[in-house]
Design a protein that fits this description.
The chain has about 475 residues and is mostly helical. Helix content is about 65%, strand content about 0%. It has a two-stranded antiparallel sheet with strand order 1-2. Helix 1 packs across helix 15 (about 335-350), helix 9 (about 175-180) packs parallel to helix 12 and helix 10 (about 185-215) runs antiparallel to helix 12 (about 230-275). The radius of gyration is 27 Å and the shape is flat. The relative contact order is 0.09.
Length: about 475
C-alpha cells in the first residue's frame, strides 16, 4: 500500500513513469511492490515462476502411476526444463533492465508499450516451454497412464495456483485434508465421486481466475503509470469476483465431501477444512482449557459438575453461532478490500490520521466473540468457591473484575471494540495489512508466556491491563 501512496502523491509525469519502470523491475524479481497496487494482486508475481520444479516429481508419479524406470527419465526432463526456463527468463530480465533509464525520457503510452512487448512475448515463450515439457512427458507414457492425464493437470494446477489466493477459504486443497482425516478405505471409496467433482469444479474456477490475473497485468501497469486509482481498483474488484468463484468451489467441496464421508469421518474432515480455510475464526478458543481445568478439580461437587457440563454445552452452541457470523463477515467484506485499502492509502497520503484495522462487520463479529469468551469465563469462575479458584493453575488469589462483567462499577471504562491501531499519515510511512497478522499476536513488546505477560494476565486468560487487553483484540 505504501507504493500506492507514493504513486498517488507524485506530481511529475516523469516521476510516475519511473515508478512504473521500478514496479516492473520489482515484479521481475518477485518483490511485492507492483502486486500491492490498488489493494490487491495481479498475475505479475507468477510470471517468472517456473511451471515445474524438481519437487513436483511426486505429483507426476502419483497422478500417472509411473513405473520405476520412468522416474529417472522424468527427472532428466525436469532438469532440461529448468535450464531452458532459466536461460529464457534471464534474457527477458536483461532486456527489461534498461527500462528505468528509458522511462525518464518517454511518455506514458510509450513506456507501457515498451513494458508490454517483452511481457507478451515472454508469456507466449513460457507457455511453449510448458507445452514442450509436457509433450516430452506424454511421450514416455503408456495408454493406461495417458488416461490419467486430466488428473495430473488438476493436481499441478492446485499445486501452483492455490497459494495465489487472497480470500479466506480460497487456498485450501481439500484432497490433502481428506488424506489428513485418514478415512477408512470403504469411506474413501464412498467419497471418491464427491472428491472427483470437487477437483473438476476447482480446476475450472482456478483456470478462470488465473486467466483473469494474467490479463490484468497490462491494465494495472497502465493504471499505475497514470496514477489512475479508479481504474486500478475496478480491475482488482473484477479479479476479486474470480476469486469468489474459487472460494465458492471450495465451500461446495467441503459440504459434498463431508456428506460423502459419512458421520464417522465427515465432521472431522469439515473441522480440519474450516480450520485451514478460516484460521482466524477456528483457532483454539481460550475458554475450553478453563472448563477442562475446572472439571479436573478434585473437590468439585456433583452439583457443580452438572452445572459446568451444562454451561459447556451452552458455550459450544454459542461459539458455533459466533464463529459462523465471523465467517460470514469475512466472506462479505474481503471482496471489497481493494477499494477500502486504496481509500485508506489515499487518506493517509493526504496526511489524515487513519485507523488500520479490519472492516467494520469483521470487527463487530470479533468483538462478539471476545464478549462471549469473557461472559463464559465469568460464569464458569462464578460457580467456584474462592478456594477452588485459587486451586486452578495460575489463578490469582482474587477473582479479577475484568473476568466478571457483573462486577464492573457504573461508569467504569469498557474495553474498546476491535483493533485500535491509529496511524498519522506521513510520506514514506510503512503501513501494514492487518489481515496478514496472525490473530492473537501481540503488537506490543510483551511476548506470550513471558514474565511480563504472566503478570498482565490472570489464570483464566483474562488480561488485567486494559491497555494490553485493548491491543490484543482482533
Amino acid at each position: 500500500m505504501t507504493s500506492l501512496i507514493r504513486c498517488l502523491t507524485l506530481p511529475s509525469i516523469r516521476t510516475r513513469l519511473a515508478v512504473t519502470a521500478i514496479a516492473v523491475g520489482c515484479a521481475l524479481t518477485g518483490t511485492p511492490t507492483a502486486e500491492a497496487q490498488f489493494g490487491g494482486r495481479s498475475g505479475m508475481a507468477s510470471m517468472f515462476t517456473p511451471d515445474f520444479l524438481p519437487r513436483d516429481l511426486p505429483i507426476f508419479v502419483d497422478a500417472l502411476s509411473l513405473e520405476e524406470w520412468q522416474r529417472p527419465v522424468l527427472e532428466v526432463l525436469l532438469q532440461d526444463y529448468d535450464a531452458n526456463f532459466t536461460t529464457a527468463a534471464d534474457g527477458v530480465r536483461s532486456k527489461m533492465a534498461s527500462f528505468k533509464d528509458i522511462a525518464a525520457g518517454a511518455n506514458a503510452e510509450r513506456v507501457i508499450e515498451l513494458i508490454s512487448e517483452p511481457l507478451v512475448a515472454w508469456t507466449a515463450e513460457k507457455k511453449k516451454l510448458r507445452e514442450d515439457f509436457l509433450a516430452g512427458v506424454r511421450g514416455t507414457l503408456g495408454d493406461t497412464q495417458v488416461e490419467n492425464w486430466p488428473r495430473l493437470e488438476r493436481a499441478l494446477l492446485r499445486e501452483k495456483s492455490l497459494p495465489l489466493g487472497e480470500l479466506s477459504g480460497e487456498s485450501v486443497d481439500l484432497t490433502i485434508v481428506v488424506r489428513e482425516t485418514q478415512p477408512s478405505p470403504l469411506a474413501l471409496d464412498a467419497a471418491r465421486g464427491a472428491i472427483d467433482q470437487y477437483e473438476i469444479a476447482l480446476h475450472e474456477a482456478l483456470s478462470t481466475r488465473d486467466a483473469a490475473l494474467d490479463n490484468a497485468i497490462a491494465p494495472l501497469l497502465k493504471a499505475m503509470s497514470n496514477s489512475d486509482a479508479n481504474s486500478g481498483v475496478a480491475m482488482q474488484e473484477s479479479l476479486m469476483q474470480k476469486r469468489v468463484l474459487v472460494r465458492d468451489a471450495q465451500d461446495a467441496g467441503i459440504a459434498a465431501i463431508r456428506d460423502a464421508l459419512g458421520a464417522e469421518y465427515g465432521a472431522e474432515f469439515e473441522r480440519r477444512a474450516m480450520q485451514k480455510a478460516f484460521p482466524q475464526v477456528f483457532r483454539p478458543d481460550p475458554v475450553t482449557p478453563v472448563f477442562e481445568a475446572v472439571m479436573a478439580l478434585p473437590d468439585l461437587t456433583d452439583d457443580q459438575k452438572k452445572q459446568v457440563a451444562e454451561l459447556k454445552i451452552q458455550f459450544d452452541e454459542e461459539l458455533r453461532t459466533v464463529r459462523g457470523e465471523l465467517v460470514a463477515a469475512f466472506k462479505s467484506t474481503e471482496p471489497n478490500e481493494p477499494r477500502r485499502r486504496t481509500e485508506l492509502a489515499r487518506q493517509k497520503a493526504e496526511g489524515a490520521t487513519v485507523r488500520i484495522g479490519d472492516a467494520q462487520p469483521v470487527e463487530q463479529a470479533k468483538k462478539a466473540r471476545e464478549d462471549l469468551f469473557e461472559k463464559y469465563r465469568a460464569l464458569l469462575v462464578g460457580l467456584l468457591s474462592p478456594e477452588q479458584r485459587d486451586a486452578l493453575p495460575g489463578a490469582q488469589k482474587e477473582m479479577p473484575e475484568a473476568a466478571n462483567p457483573a462486577m464492573l462499577k457504573p461508569g467504569a471504562a469498557q474495553p474498546s471494540d476491535g483493533t485500535e491501531q491509529i496511524e498519522q499519515g506521513a510520506p514514506g510511512n510503512n503501513d501494514t495489512n492487518p489481515r496478514n497478522v496472525p490473530e492473537g499476536e501481540k503488537p506490543s513488546s510483551t511476548k506470550p508466556g513471558s514474565a511480563a505477560d504472566s503478570a498482565a494476565t490472570n489464570g483464566f486468560g483474562v488480561n488485567n491491563n486494559p491497555i494490553v487487553k485493548q491491543r490484543r483484540r482482533g
